Amino acid sequence: MQIYLIEGKLEYRLPFMNNLSKDLSKDKRCLLISFKRNTSLNLEDIYDMEGMITYDICDHFLNYVSLENVINKADENIDFIIAPLLEDKYEIKKDDINKLIEDLSCYDYLIFDNLAKNMIENKKTITIVSDEDINKKIDADYFFIEAEDGFDERIVRNEILEKSSKFLGVKRKNEDYIDIINNLKDDKKADIEKLSFIEKIKMKFKK
Predict the structure, then answer these.
(1) Strand pairing class (72-73; 78-81)
(2) Band of pLDDT at residue 149, cut at 50, 70 and 90
(3) Is the pTM of this model over 0.85?
């Protein structure tokens, strides 16, 4: 089993989780789990199941229902568990997560959203940052950048290479995630070309 923990802004996390699960589920079983309800977008929304009536993960932790009753099917090989409907419904503990992972051993991939790093062992963390947050500290195994169409990662090449996290690439507004997902699966860093001498000179004159 491979476990991924996704971090970053909501508008970045859920679309990426959607695309990642679709890729991973081509020949494997995948489960997505969220632990905090958002006002604008949740797991059930990305699978066009908004307004569904179902049990949430805390109903299982409280022993109201069995695990199978909180698992929802999104696609042939993609299932998901929704976040607690009430924020103070139950205080999730690390033991709850450990037991949950044991009980979900039938899945090849677990993708966690909105869960503190110290709650889960043996995971790969992926942080998604905007092009404006390159200089911020990143505490993750991998990261990639969500950027506008005109963003040029060569300009911030040094800042990216200084990170201890493995750089998966750039996802621009009108592009897909395929290269980023492939780099993640292959445990591969994205290449960043250097600016040519002429380009550097031109940039200086533009300032």
Answers:
(1) antiparallel
(2) confident
(3) yes
